[in-house]
Amino acid sequence: MSIDALRDLIPAYAKDLSLNLSSLASETVLTDQQKWGTFVATAYAVGVPEVVQNLEAAASASLTPEALNAAKAAAAIMGMNNVYYRALHLMHNQEYATLPAKLRMNILANPGAPKVDFELWSLAVSAVNGCGLCLDSHEKVLRAHDVTNVQVQAALRIAATVNAISAVIRGEKAAGA
């Protein structure tokens, strides 16, 4: 399983996604760990088995077991946080935003990868999950760590492409293809 195997699953009508996947896999604006962690975190956030399996296999040469676990942890914790904080952001009653979340987030203190990488993965997952509040929060931390707008954009491009490929593969399965 690999990028090529994943590209083989993408139908001809979605050729642009296949081309984007190839170019993003060759992206050099992020470190290999940042890039492949973003692929893995967003794949886990969407949860399409073929996408998760192929991207995790492609990432295996670039991620330590600890970094792989941290990328998965970013998908897990943001899966919870994105729902909670997006809801607070969307609700008109601001009283809820003044209450403590009372949700365990211990992984944030020691994610098993450099803080900047974990923040980048969390930002990408937040894009997939559509939480503007979390996007702003993680982008602010990244910029404070001298991550450039081009690097943030690269993570967002990976998130968008992984999400779209996952949707196409899910749709094809639903259609019985």
From TrEMBL:
Record PANTHER family: ALKYL HYDROPEROXIDE REDUCTASE AHPD
Enumerate the HAMAP family for this protein. Answer: AhpD
Q: Does the UniProt entry include the keyword Protein biosynthesis?
A: no
Alphabetically list the UniProt keywords: Antioxidant, Disulfide bond, Oxidoreductase, Peroxidase, Redox-active center
- Reactions catalysed according to its record: N(6)-[(R)-dihydrolipoyl]-L-lysyl-[lipoyl-carrier protein] + a hydroperoxide = N(6)-[(R)-lipoyl]-L-lysyl-[lipoyl-carrier protein] + an alcohol + H2O
Q: Please tell me whether the keyword Mitochondrion is annotated for this protein.
A: no
Protein's name according to its UniProt entry: Alkyl hydroperoxide reductase AhpD
Encoded by which gene? ahpD
